[in-house]
Amino acid sequence: MNIENELEILRNKLNQLEQENHKLKRDTLQNKVNNLLFGFFSNCKDVAVIISDSKKRLVFANKGASEIFDIHQDQMCIEDAFLKNILLPDDYNLLLENHKHAIENKLEVIETICKIKVGKQEKSVLFEDTLCILEEENETTNYIIYSKLTNLSHQVYQPISDDIYIEKTRRIGAETALRENEAKLRSFFEQSANGIVFINSQQIIIDFNHLASEMLEFNKEIVFNKSIESLFCKLAEKQKITNETSRDFISKLTFYFQNYTTFKTNFLYEFEFFSNRGKLNISISVFPINNSGEVFFGGILRDITVEKNNESELEKYHEYLEEVIKERTIDLIQSEHRIKNLSDSLPGGAIFRAIRTDDHVFKLDYVSGNFYELIGVDPAMDYTNLVGIYDNIHPSDRDKFLKQKEISRYSLSDFNLEVRYYMPQGNTKWFQIRAKANVTDNGKVFWDGYVIDTTEKPLSY
């Protein structure tokens, strides 16, 4: 026998097995339907009932249903899209949504009030649906729906049917919105840039997101529904944290749980974590959440390794700057001493700084040590306001001095003048005064300059 014949035999056997499988599924479905029919007719009388499959095709309708829909029951089961055609579009979509919700949440019975089109009229009908799962294959759920129908359009129901319909619609809308919000919150929870953990008041972990699991390198089976203490003990066993860190954290967290109402801030704890990627710095912030009188705790985990490294670098740089400033200060003090020594020993001259104060008075802000000796006065005497110095300038040169000073103040030009000066001993000397004008940060004009004795060789004469 060649290979082609063997393949043909295998194909035939495969087809036979598929046919037997389909027949088994049909028989299973029929048995389910028969059991439902038997149960229904055994326990219920004079009620309307339909049975449909997961594609909303009718597989059975009794006489009561036929009367509500005003269509012969055999004709109802022939139409593949019977429910879609007879229900108002919004109500049909609501029915689909309710069935989907029932499947996802494993609800056996669910109620929906829908409006149906009967000729030119509309009827309000209550669907009491019981879902029976047949199989789940390739992510598809096959099921049948046993629906008990109540016509709310009869006179006895009419006064309240519209209110019930509106209230049911609102409730379903609210439930749908709630499910959507829950989905959004779950998405935010899982996609957060930080690890998130929820703990109950007994310190049991009740939920956490993927990043928290990834950050602390644990899986759900190890910690879900376990105490936070057991998690940190396991981390210590795996040498992810030190035993001291584990004990310290649990001790402080337990104290916080017992006294959280007295805390004005969240519980904050930082620790080193030895991950597979190297040493990390992690912070955890724990805060209370009051949910309808029941207290839970949320925990935010952050990887602060980069922040800690930056802080360390900043601290090193700060220490470096302090050392540089210290060195520069020493250099500056030494430089000032050298300048002072040089200025004090300047032969026949002295240096000074004069400044114009807020009250428009000119004062000496600094003079070198030999200044008073140069002009022949006692250093103990106060010449800082320049009045005594002005008075000793020769009258013919005094006006020049004051005029030159004002010009320099307004234009910030250099001051350069030679004057005759009456010495206290009765003799007269010539002094060359040169200074550069400038302005302080707060707007005050000042002059840095020097005075030289030019008596032996006066420049002006």
Short structural summary:
With 461 residues, the protein is α+β, with helices and mostly antiparallel strands. The chain has helices at residues 3-43, 63-69, 73-78, 82-86, 89-104, 158-191, 210-216, 220-223, 228-237, 243-259, 305-344, 371-375, 387-392, 395-411, and strands spanning 48-53, 58-61, 109-118, 121-137, 140-151, 195-200, 205-208, 267-275, 278-291, 294-303, 349-356, 362-367, 415-422, 428-439, 445-453. Helix 9 (228-237) runs antiparallel to helix 10 (243-259).
Folded structure, characterized:
- This protein is an alpha+beta fold and 461 residues long.
- The chain has four domains: 166 residues, PAS domain (Beta-Lactamase, 2-Layer Sandwich); 108 residues, Beta-Lactamase (2-Layer Sandwich), CATH 3.30.450; 40 residues; 108 residues, PAS domain (Beta-Lactamase), CATH 3.30.450.
- The chain contains 14 helices and 15 strands.
- The strands form three sheets. It has a five-stranded antiparallel sheet with strand order 2-1-5-4-3.
- A hairpin with a 2-residue loop joins strand 4 and strand 5.
- Helix 9 runs antiparallel to helix 10.
- The radius of gyration is 49 Å and the shape is elongated.
- The chain starts with a helix and ends in an 8-residue tail after the last strand.
- About 3% of the residues have low confidence.
